[in-house]
Structures are given as C-alpha cells and as structure tokens.
From TrEMBL:
Its cofactor is Mg(2+). GO terms for molecular function: (2E,6E)-farnesyl diphosphate synthase activity; metal ion binding. Keywords: Isoprene biosynthesis, Magnesium, Metal-binding, Transferase. Its EC number is 2.5.1.10. The gene is ispA. It is an enzyme of class 2 (transferase). SUPFAM superfamilies: Terpenoid synthases (SSF48576). This is (2E,6E)-farnesyl diphosphate synthase. It comes from Thiorhodococcus minor. The keyword Methyltransferase does not apply. One of its GO terms (cellular component) is cytoplasm.
Length: 297
C-alpha cells in the first residue's frame, strides 16, 4: 500500500466529514440548546469515521466526485452516532465511557441522550433527502438503503438478536448472523452510498462491491473482538478502558485467538479479491480494508 496516498485520501475525506457534520448539526445557540449540545458532543467526538471513509472510497471506485458524497457519508455517521448513544444507555450496555470520555447519558442525562439519538437518526434521513449534487432517484435509493440497513432487519435487528442471545451459548454461525446485522449492515450501507451516488452501475460491479463490504464488515467485527482480547493500545483505548465482558460471545472466545486472526485475514483477502475488476480506482477501498485489519483501536 502506498502509505502517503492513503494518508492524503484519509486526511481529505476526514476534513470533508468533519466540516459537513459541523455544518449540518444544529448550533448550540439554537433552542433546545441542551439537546443540540448533546448531539454535537457525541458526533463531533474523535471517532475513526470508518463509515464515511468507506462511502468516499466506494465513490472513487465508481468515479463519483467527493462533493456528491458529503451528505451520504455524513448520514451514515449520524446513524452510527445515534446507535452508540443508545447502545451505551443503562437499558442496554450501561457504559460510562465512549471514545475516551463520558457517554452521552453520563455527560448530560438519560432523557437527553435518548432524544439526541432520536434526533440524530431523523437528521440522517433529512440530510440525505436534501443532499445537493445528486439526482432525486439517487437520494431516494440512499434513503431506502440507509433505512433498511439501520432498521429491524439491519442494525437494530442485530442489536435485538444480541440482547436475546445474552447468556446463551453461541456457535460461529449464530455470532456471524448477529454481526452481519448489528455492525455489517451499516458498513454495507456505507459502500452502497458510492453505488447509489453513481446510479448507473453495472449489476456485476454493484454485486462485487457489496461482497467486498460484506467481507469487510465481518473482518471489522472479528478484529474488534481481537482488540478486546489483546488490549487496545491507543490513547483513547487506554483511557476509555475497553471493557472485556467475559460472558460476551466473541470470535476469539468461540474459535480461539489464532483462528480469529486467520478468519479476519481470510475475509480481508476475499474483500480484496472482489475488487480486482476495478483496477486502480478501487485503491482507496483497498487502503481502508488494510487499515481496518491493521488497526490498533
Ligand atoms: C442501540 C440501535 C442500537 C444499535 C446498537 C452498532 C451498535 C448497535 C452498537 C455499538 C456497540 C458496539 C461496540 C458494536 C460493535 C461494532 C463496533 C465496533 C462499533 C464501534 O464502531 P467504531 O469502531 O467506533 O467505528 P468509532 O468510535 O471509531 O466511531
């Protein structure tokens, strides 16, 4: 991988993401200011912005200009931020720390956190519906893609399956099914944004990109489980303290650490293989896939 090229791509996309998020989030000066503060507190914290990066990278593979993807990339990040707020609530994981600082309900209060999550979710669809530089059909398909991916047959469904499975023994297929929905659906939707922005994609190319995203989503989750076991050595990880929940079903717990690492590597290789037909245009997707496998937090 050409590290300089990846760094330049990442820096450019992250700058676009931060400025779009700042622009579309309501200012604290507007009422209800505490709610707007909670929304900005969560979204503008230091996330890795993997999903926006994937949307821009898929757009590059499709020959779509970056500015057509500003809103779609930000919309996936808003859904992700809402899911983190709700996942951290006492009724779910009851976490005190997120991204190295107090979770939204700790920094504000539970009711404000619930409402901030709700408002982020609806804002995601609003900015997609209003997105400039895209044809109406692309915007409608994006709204459809993101709503399917985040609803009861996507991310929310995965969370429900995860809660239902708590305390019961899981095999790899069951764990995989949870993660395909809980984490994978939104990763897949991020890549779909690039396809939807283009509109006239050859079906075979759309399927290959989707297969790339499915493999990557699972590899991402397995790597996350590996980091839980091996320890997150990043500054955020050290201060946040990744909480290793011993009764939680994870890939290393089910197949062992060595096999989990092999699985993440195999899936990343399969993701790369799906990109072959795209040549150099898919390099940003390749860089993101490698960076996810090698990440330290
Ligand atoms: C509560 C509606 C609802 C959904 C919850 C995605 C999710 C479903 C919960 C998040 C909890 C969690 C740890 C899921 C595993 C996936 C994962 C590693 C999420 C964290 O995503 P990153 O690493 O986070 O992209 P940053 O902070 O970098 O944005």
């Amino acid at each position: 991988m050409t590290q300089n090229n990846f760094d330049a791509f990442r820096t450019r996309c992250l700058a676009r993401t931060e400025s779009t998020l700042d622009e579309i989030l309501p200012p604290v000066s507007v009422q209800p200011s505490r709610l707007h503060e909670a929304m900005r507190y969560t979204v503008l914290a230091s996330g890795k912005r993997i999903r926006p990066l994937l949307a821009y990278a898929a757009g590059e593979a499709m020959g779509v200009e970056n500015d057509a993807l500003d809103r779609p990339a930000a919309s996936v990040e808003l859904i992700h931020a809402y899911s983190l707020i709700h996942d951290d609530l006492p009724a779910m994981d009851d976490d005190d720390l997120r991204r190295g600082r107090p979770t939204c309900h700790r920094a504000f209060d539970e009711a404000t956190a619930i409402l901030a999550g709700d408002a982020l979710q609806t804002l995601a669809f609003q900015i997609l519906a209003e997105a400039p530089g895209l044809r109406a059909e692309s915007r409608i398909r994006m709204v459809e893609t993101l709503s399917r991916a985040s609803g009861s047959r996507g991310m929310v469904g995965g969370q429900a399956m995860d809660l239902e499975a708590e305390g019961t023994p899981l095999d790899v297929a069951m764990l995989e099914n949870i993660h395909i929905h809980k984490t994978g659906a939104l990763i897949r939707a991020s890549v779909q944004m690039g396809i939807r922005a283009r509109g006239d994609v050859v079906p075979d190319h759309a399927e290959r990109l989707d297969h790339f995203a499915k493999c990557l989503g699972l590899a991402f989750q397995i790597k996350d489980d590996i980091l839980d076991v091996e320890g997150d050595t990043s500054e955020i990880g050290k201060t946040a303290g990744r909480d290793l929940e011993l009764n939680k079903a994870t890939y290393p717990a089910i197949v062992g650490l060595t096999e989990a690492k092999e699985m993440a590597k195999r899936l990343t290789d399969e993701a790369h293989a799906a990109l072959e037909v795209f040549g150099g245009a898919a390099d940003p997707l390749r860089w993101v896939a490698n960076a996810l496998l090698e990440r330290k937090h």
